[in-house]
Amino acid sequence: MSVVAEFTVDADQFQLGNTLSGVPGITFELERCVPTGDLALPFLWATTEEDLDEVVETFETQLLDSQYVKKILALDKIKNGIFYRISWTDPTEDLLDAIITSDATILQARSEQGTRWEFSVRFVDHDKLALFQNTLADHEVRIHIDRIYTFAEETDHRRQFDLSFEQREALVLAVQRGYFATPSKVSLDELADELGITKQAVSARIRRANEKVLETTLLSSAVAERGGD
């Protein structure tokens, strides 16, 4: 059963983080990837709210001066950011090496200012997660685990949309009675009467339930698409 670990790590604990830190005003986000020994070259978004040209010039100069960077290639440019492909030297015995050793997949990695990173990494099973943690210990890399969960648990959570019983009941009834049809086949007063609550209460439950469902489906889809799905 696959398992996902969400953790934070300081930039000085791994080569990539160390190389990218030091240029203020940049937010970094790695594209979803499966690092391998000769493909430790994450695709990287660098975005900023400051003058893009000035920030990028400083950032690229720093990268090219690094002993760990072989080559950088700007693939796309948008109003406030640039998408890079970066070729690195062989990974050192650090976080990235531990991810490679455990055959894990980086689902998401993000850092504001480059000083501290947030990672979401998927492992094929708990044994691989244990291997990852043991490798980190061998390399003396310190991370902070925020959450560990199975893929099945997360999927079930998303299916449930984190709705309360009352919210689910109101939303299901609204759909069944045709409240969202055009024109609507039932009024809030009628739904309220059927549930034995006030019109204001049923309206609030439907609105909040809708919000949770839309957040779960649309926002999680947007994250997945950015991650390369």
From TrEMBL:
UniProtKB keywords: Plasmid, Transcription, Transcription regulation
Any Pfam family matching the protein: BAT
Keyword Transcription regulation attributed: yes
Domain called Bacterioopsin transcriptional activator GAF and HTH associated: residue spans: 5-136
Boundaries of every HTH bat-type domain copy: 166-215
Keyword Transcription regulation on entry: yes
PANTHER family documented for this protein: DIMETHYL SULFOXIDE REDUCTASE TRANSCRIPTIONAL ACTIVATOR (PTHR34236)
Protein name, per record: Bacterio-opsin activator
Annotated source species: Natronorubrum aibiense
Phylogenetic placement of the source organism: Archaea, Methanobacteriati, Methanobacteriota, Stenosarchaea group, Halobacteria
